Amino acid sequence: MESALLIHRLHFAFTATFHYLFPQFTMGLALLIVVLKTIALRRNDRVYDEAARFWGRIFGINFVLGVVTGIPMEFQFGTNWAVFSRFAGGVIGQTLAMEGMFAFFLESAFLGLFLYGEKRLSPRAHWFSAVAVFVGSWLSGYFIIATDAFMQRPVGYFTAADGSLQLGSFWDFVLNRWALWQYAHNMSGAAITGAFAMTAVGAFYLLSGKWTEHARIFVKVGVVAGCVFSILQIFPTGDRQGKLVADHQPVTLAAMEGLFHGQNAAPLLILGQPNELEGKIENPIEVPGMLSMLTYQRWNANVQGLDAFPKENWPGNIPLLYYSYHIMVGLGTFFVAVMAVALLLLRRGRIFSARWMLWVLMLSAPFPYIANTAGWMTAELGRQPWLVYGLMRTEDGYSKVVSAGNGMFTLLGFMGMYTVLGILFLFLVRREIEHGPGAGGSAAESHPTAEAQ
Amino acid sequence: MASLWFWIVAVMITAYVVLDGFDLGAGVIYLLVAKTNDERRRVLRAIGPVWDGNEVWLLAAGGTLYFAFPLLYASSFSGFYLPLMIVLWLLMLRAVGIEFRVHLDNPIWTEFFDVVFAVSSILLCVFLGAALGNVVRGVPLDATGYFFEPLWTNFRLGPQTGILDWYTILAGVVALVTLTAHGSYYVALKTDEDLGRRARGLALLLWPLQLFLTCVALVTTCFIRPEVMANYHAHRIGILVPIIVFASLAMMLWATPKGKEKAAFAASSLYIVGMLVGAAFALYPVVLPSRDRQHDLTIWNTSAALHGLRVGLVWWMLSAVLAVAYFVFIYRMFRGKVQLGEGHY
What we know:
With 453 residues, chain A is mostly helical. Chain A is built from 14 helices and eight strands. In chain A, the strands form four sheets. Chain A has a two-stranded antiparallel sheet with strand order 1-2.
């Protein structure tokens, strides 16, 4: 691979992967904070209010990192992918601009109110500011997904005389079927991250015998939300997303599943290592006929393998794509199992004393991050070798004027910067968790800009 | 339609500089006027609830530029690759400096975040000014509509310019002084006692420098790029620009000693509006001039297709009304002098 191309791809992949660690949590948590605030408002319950405030502080730290790592994403379309931006900007510029205009203004305005304005606002107005932050962050997610969906399945465009893509039909573009299902799948994934994190902190407090009143709320809300969204993640959202891939990117489906040769009654591969050179899977464990069933609802349906497509249209990195997909699916299945057992224990009132379950819940917190990352890797590696599916290849889209040396310089700069930010982040979140959700404000007395005494 | 979007983007960039300008400026003077921890916290509280929203104008302007003028976005963002990346890092450091400062109650780290916040604010002012300087001066565009500038070459205005040469450094200094004064007026408006007095004193001290640099910048700009005068010759209305610029300077000098803080801050905002609208007026319809004057990027050869621009106008107006409403609401909410001891959570 040409070195400039490789560096620009790594540049985007690295910054996007690091960035998305934060929004997946804030989007999920925003929903759960609204739940906590709503219960607090209805029952006039102090503990729920304190719980919401505690998560608000952790939300604030995550939000700052989400914002500062998100700005480079918007810039990189132009800096590192200029040819692509010129080609597709007439269409995807719409959603990217809308994200700034509709979502960012809403979020930034009401987050300030939510974090610093509680004393100045009525309880209802404070609740409303939490809802506005939630709406802003979920709106932001939609515009990004709609942009990505255009790259996965371009619709609503026409090709202008100069070869660039221009907006043909706004509604076709914005309501791309791919975007709707991917959005549902993605947001449910974000809610899983938030739910697992909330449950894990609750489990940690219960295990260490601290803040048990708040911890019960965290576990209760976390487990119920975790169970609902873990199921939604697989059915219907994951299932429908898979069918879209089968319809619009059959070669991607074959690579994800490790299906080198097309066949009737294609098996679903659970485990095994792809051997690209010999075109086979080593050490396979598979369920016969299951892939045909899941894709076409018939046990003996024919599923196209990689051999049905010209090699230059295969996704570039088949093993990584295959593993990303299988890690995502494997963890998704694990989430349902864990949360189903936890919900059962919760309903019987035994979860708060079931230490083994609390241990499992606490240690599971990192897995949704891995699953969400693996999911995005599946989507974006699966799109290769296309930048805009079927219209522009990735190798044609990067900024030709930015040399590999300049790209490497800023990639290393981002790596250094993000390492420091990551360490700082873990440190600050750990302090908040240590400090706990009690009435005494945040770990460091609260916020620089609003703190008082 | 493309002209309309040119002015929309210009207004958004102006809004960004006026709004984020005062919190950048507050960062520049932060170590200078706020001596004690209490005073520093008051400065941070004065900008705390609004700085992030102010910065969104930059993102929204960037997004709107991308949508309305895809080629301009592609060409300028890749051509200004290095300075933009540095701006990104500075924005990150600055946000971390503001937001995480009090999460660490160790005085050593508080001091560290203070310096991070101040230094990144200073450098951002210079880079934003230099960026504007590059756009006014022109860049080495080729026939494909692309260019690439290293950070510097020989600091002269030859055919192969760098991001930094004597002219763009001058623009950076003008921006730094302007935004420092702007931030001082804001801090004077939002705080009282010693802190407010020091900020007002600093603004007065900067005033002669600001006047001098304004004249130098206007004269050198006409000298290095005579084309900027064309629109002013063609349209009489252009005379408003220097009138606004100098009238607002006069108003700053008049209002500050009298303690009319709102009027002084408004004058400073008006000054920024005058300078930026003046630059946009001089450039129009060019959006990125080329050094050789043959390959200028204009609103005509960079804009998106008509249908997209029309559709965009509908949602843009809706969202702009909402955004302005949020801003009015938030600024009213946090109006008045910053008080410590009011409590939070």
